[in-house]
Amino acid sequence: MLHLDTGNTGFMILCTSLVMLMTPGLAFFYGGLVGRKNVLAIMMQSFVSMGWTTVIWYLYGYSVCFSGDWHGIIGNLNNICLRGVSLNTPSPNVTIPALVFIAYQMMFAIITPALISGAFANRVTFKAYMLFLTGWLTFVYFPFVHMVWGGGVLEQWGVRDFAGGIVVHNIAGIAALASILYVGRRRVADPGPHSIPLVALGTGLLWFGWYGFNAGSEMRVDSVTATAFLNTDIAASFAAVAWLITAWSLEKKPKLLGLLTGAVAGLATITPAAGYVSPSTAVIIGLAAGVVCYFAVELKNKLRWDDALDVWGVHGVGGFLGIVMLGIFADRAYNPAGPNGLLHGDAGFFMKQLVAVLFSSVWAFLFTLAMLKIINTFTPVRVDEASEKLGLDEALHGEHAYEEFGR
Fold first, then answer.
1. In terms of C-beta density within 10 A (0-12 exposed, 13-18 middle, 19 or more buried), how is residue 191 classed?
2. What is the model's pLDDT at position 234?
3. 18 has pLDDT over 90
C-alpha cells in the first residue's frame, strides 16, 4: 500500500529530471569529441534513445525488469504497457508512487545504451544502431536490472550496486569493447575533438545530473542520500585532478580534455559505491579512477583498439573498478542497510562483487557480439567507405551541424 511522502516524492521527481538531463549532456560531450562532419550523427544516437527507449520501457521494459521473476534472470509481462499500475501503486519504497519510480528507472535505461555509441562513432549505420539499441536493452540491460535491482539472482545472492556500476557502466563499457572489435577501425582518420568547449558543456551537464543519478538511488531523503551526494562530487573532483596530474607529467601540458575525462571517470567509478562508503573512501576511489582509467585508455591506444571516445577505458574499466572497490571498502557505519567490505571483515562480500562483475562482463561481451553478427545478416552494421569519407551527418541524415563542414 502506498504511504505517500511528499518530500521523498518531490525529491525523486527532481532526481528523475536530473538523470534525464544527462542524456543531452552525453550528446554534447560526444558531439564535441568527434569531427565536424559527424556531430549530428553521434548526437542523434543519444537523443533517439530518449524517444525509442521510452517506447520500449512503456511497452515491456519496466515489466521485465521489475515484475515477477523467471529463474532470477528476468521478470515477466504482468505490467506490460504499465498494466496494473495506478495512482496508489507503491514503488519498492512505499512512500513513493510507482509512477515516479518507473520514470526514474526509465532515465537510467535511456542513457545506458547511449553510452556505447561513443565507441563506434563515425562507423555504424543508423538502421543498425536502432536494431542494436532494441536488442541490447532487451538481452543485456533489462536482465541485469532485474538480476541486480529487481529481486533477481545477483541481488538475492548479496551483490550490491548502489547506482549502476554493473547495471550501467560496466556492461556498457564492455559492450563498447565488443562493438569496436566487431566493427573494426575507422577507414577515415578522424581529426579529433572539433569543440572542446562543447565537451566541457556536456561534462557540466553530466556532472550536474549525476547527483540525481547517485543520490536519487537511495529512493528517499536521509543521511545516506547526503553521503551519496557528497561522495559523488568528491570522487569526480579527485579523479579529475588525478587524471590531470598523471597526463601532465607524461604529456608535459595540462589539458582541459584530460581534466574533463577524468571527472567522468570518477563519476562512473563512484557510482556503485556512492551510498555505501565514507567520504574518505570516495577520495581513494576518485584517485584510483583518475589513474587507472587514464592508463586503461593508454593501453587501448597501444593495442590500437578504435574506441573512438574511450567508452571502455572510462565506463567499462571505471564500472569494474568501482564494483571491486565497493567490495573492499563498503562500510555499514555509512549505510546500516548495506554490506561491510573486505576491510571491514567480510571477505565473502568482496568475492561476490568480483564474481558478479566478471559475470556481467562476459555476458555483455558475448551478447553484444552475437547481436551485432545477427543484425549484420539483416542490414549492414558498418557504413560504406564513401559515407565515412563524406561524413555521417550528410550521408545518413542529410544535414550538417555547421555552414562549413569540411573538417
1. exposed
2. 98
3. yes
State the pLDDT confidence band at 309, using cuts at 50, 70 and 90.
Answer: confident
Distance (Å, whole) CA 113 – CA 132 = 9
Ordered domains of the chain (ranges, CATH): 6-397 (1.10.3430.10)
Distance in angstroms (rounded) separating the CA atoms of residues 95 and 97: 7
Cα–Cα distance between 309 and 132 in angstroms, integer?
18
3-state DSSP assignment of residue 171? helix
Each residue's pLDDT tens digit, 336-369: 999 999 999 999 999 999 999 999 999 999 999 9
Which pLDDT value is given to residue 272? Answer: 97
- In 203-216, which positions are buried (b, 16+ CB within 10 angstroms) versus exposed (e)? bebbbebbbbbbbb
Handedness of CA 154, 159, 163, 168 (dihedral sign): negative
pLDDT surpasses 60 at 407: no
**Segment 227-254, tens digit of pLDDT:** 999 999 999 999 999 999 999 999 999 9
Q: Do 277 and 329 contact (CB within 8 A), yes or no? A: yes
How far is residue 357's CA from residue 18's CA, in Å, rounded to a whole number? 27
Give dist(CA 331, CA 11) in Å, integer. 25
CA-nearest of 145, 123, 141, 140 to 45 is: 123
Q: Which three cell numbers, joined as nine digits, stand for 24?
A: 543531452
Angle separating helix axes 142-149 and 98-116, nearest 10 degrees: 130
Cell readout for 95 is 512512500
Asked if residue 13 lies in contact with residue 226, where contact means CB atoms within 8 angstroms, the answer is: no
* SS percent in the chain: helix, strand, coil, step 5: 70, 0, 30
Does pLDDT of 82 surpass 60? yes
Contact present, 401 and 212 (Cβ < 8 Å):
no
Nearest to 205 by CA among 32, 402, 4: 32
Cα–Cα distance for residue pair 178/260, rounded to 1 Å: 25
Positive or negative, the CA dihedral 313, 314, 316, 320 is: positive
